[in-house]
Amino acid sequence: MYSLDSMPFGKSWGEWTARWWQWMLSIPKGNNPVDDKIGQKSTQSQSGPVWFLTGTNGGQADRECTIPAGKAILGACINDSLTFLESQNINTQFNTVEDLRTSVKNEIDGTTIRDLEKFRVKSPEFSVTLPDNNIYDVEPGPTQGVSDGYWFFLEPLPVGKHQIHFRGKSQGFNNEVKYSINVQ
Q1: Is there a domain that residue 124 lies in?
Q2: Taking the CA of residue 173 as centre, how many other CA atoms within 13 Å lie in the half-sphere pointing to its CB?
Q3: Which end of the chain offers a freer environment for a tag, N or C, measured as fewer CB atoms within 10 Å?
Q4: In terms of DSSP H, where are the helices of 26-160?
Q5: Higher-scoring residue by pLDDT: 6, 175
Q6: How far apart are CA 73 and CA 47, in angstroms?
Q7: For the chain, how many structural domains are there in total?
Q8: How many other CB atoms are there within 10 angstroms of residue 17's CB atom?
Q9: CB under 8 Å to 178, separation ≥6 — which residues?
């Protein structure tokens, strides 16, 4: 696992978590990996040196996916984001990034990750364009957002089969995902 103070591929963990959100939020419902229970959408819009894994919108998933060799892996046990467009949908209009940031609080191959609280990462402000039929069910368009969560960032795994199991719980929200990953 990368150390929290490292700069994988020239970016901080916070910058990579912002990229993760830009990736995930740009994918419409129906194609979005967050809604996929078995992993068939795990390759959706993946590009670059880091492969993104998603949790769920609540509940459990048991996914299988193939990841190209040499890709680092970024995912979150539990995370949350808030964008200006989404805030309109919850009847709370936020006007500044600090308003958004204040509102966002929230085992690999059989080895438990210890001291998970050390891996809490807050993103910098990021830009994203929400598509039609987005997972927040808000008007599509450009917006700004921030995120907060507990993340794992794995160096590229060796070729072969791997298991990644993560879960998180926050204020009645449960997320648990088991990935069977084939790196090739």
Answers
A1: yes
A2: 14
A3: C
A4: 84-89, 97-103
A5: 6
A6: 12
A7: 1
A8: 27
A9: 61, 62, 63, 163, 164, 165
Cα–Cα distances in Å, from 3 out to 119, 124, 174? 9, 18, 26
Query: Cα 113 to chain center, whole Å?
Result: 17
Query: Residue 39 domain-assigned?
Result: yes
- Give residue 106's domain range: 8-183
Predicted TM-score (pTM) of this structure:
0.82
pLDDT (tens digit, 9 = 90+) per residue, 145-167?
888 888 899 999 999 999 999 88
Q: Is 124 helix (H, G, I), strand (E, B) or coil?
A: coil
Whole-angstrom Cα distance, residue 87 to residue 36?
Answer: 25
Mean pLDDT of 104-126: 67
Q: How many CB atoms lie within 10 A of CB 165?
A: 15
Q: Is residue 34 part of a domain?
A: yes
Q: Between β-strands 173-183 and 50-52, what pairing exists: parallel, antiparallel or unpaired?
A: unpaired
Rounded Cα distance between 143 and 66, Å, is 32
Would residue 99 count as lying in a domain?
yes
- Cα separations in angstroms, 169 against 63, 79, 80, 124, 139: 19, 10, 12, 23, 29
**How many angstroms separate the Cα of 63 from the Cα of each of 10, 66, 71?**
30, 10, 18
Residue 104 confidence class, pLDDT cut points 50, 70, 90: very low
